[in-house]
Amino acid sequence: MTEKDFLPESYENLPTKGKFTWKAPSNIALVKYWGKKPVQIPANPSISFTLDACATTTSVTFEKKGKAGDFSFDLLFDGKPKEDFKPKIHTFFERVQAYLPFLKGYHFIIETSNSFPHSSGIASSASGMAALSLCLLDMERGMVPDVNQEYFNTKASFLARLGSGSACRSIEGPLIEFGVHDHIPGSSNLYGIQYPFKVDGIFKTFQDTILLVHKGEKQVSSTVGHQLMHGHPYAGNRFQQALQNMDALKPIFANGDLDGFIKLVESEALTLHAMMMTSMPYFMLMKPDTLAIIHKIWSFREATQVPVCFTLDAGANVHLLYPDHVKQTVHQFIDEELAMHCENGHYIHDRVGLGAKKINS
Ligand code: PMV
């Protein structure tokens, strides 16, 4: 599908007022998206597990205005006005308005909250942009007859991408691919797709414990990090490597090859951070406790042969990935060895999930 396929033809029955609520999960990339072209076109394909517990719930209440003017909305986070989120939403409205041309005719009240603690260092842009896109698209669904579910999900992913690239992987689950790859049929730079190849059942029960090493704001945003891939000395090789890793994942997923999975996923995480450390200006988001945790994971895996590995987002927190059947052993390892490296001992047990859900409002 191209951009044109997301332009609505005409609307019938514009509603006077109403409300929609959606809950959308976060996701964790296995092959990382780092580097983009305008507007939110990824420099390489990526793939993520959709999460379950870490999610954003957003309600959009709308009322038709007397006459269409500029965008008009109030934003509440945890029930309180949140002015500093508004510019991001305004930019999002500007980017999506061609695809949702009713936006300027309404006043919106956007109420949003996260299941994970505020400023836990977990990025809420993916889940937040996915939930907001779903609410707005649900509103459009009432004005356009015969929208099928597949088109709805694809357009939701397309809109979410315009808010935050990785958000396009938060509409469905359990494994979502984003970005053109010649060997992945249906792959697109415009939206995420269900990973189209065989995936062994073991990957559908994967657990992700997020070890909260640092809960504060990051010193360098992912927007800036993406930009620093322009003119980066290793960018070309990195994008090639991501393409190869997507190919390498195919037999890993099909055969339930946990050793192959661990090697590839940990290498991707460290490569992402290596790109940050070799950017100009250079920066580093890992903390001493991030490294301490990584070394303990390696020692534990060596000693026990338990298939547990880590990945990293653009931050200091560590995502611990492991199959469901080793949960008890890994939870004991976390409590005894890893929690001491987390801020206030905090971590979040999450797992692979199936995507966003509509909440009756
Ligand atoms: O969606 P953005 O622009 O915040 O970029 C996400 C970048 C990473 O989280 C580091 C990697 C990824 O693929 O999710």
Automatic annotation (TrEMBL):
MF-aspect GO terms: ATP binding; carboxy-lyase activity
Domain Mvd1 C-terminal: from-to ranges: 210-340
Transport listed as a keyword: no
Any GO BP annotation: isoprenoid biosynthetic process
InterPro entries membership: GHMP_kinase_C_sf, Mev_decarb, MVD-like_N, Mvd1_C, Ribosomal_Su5_D2-typ_SF, Ribsml_uS5_D2-typ_fold_subgr
Highest rank taxon of the organism: Bacteria
Domain spans labelled Diphosphomevalonate decarboxylase-like N-terminal: 24-178
Descriptive protein name: Diphosphomevalonate decarboxylase
Organism per entry: Flagellimonas aequoris
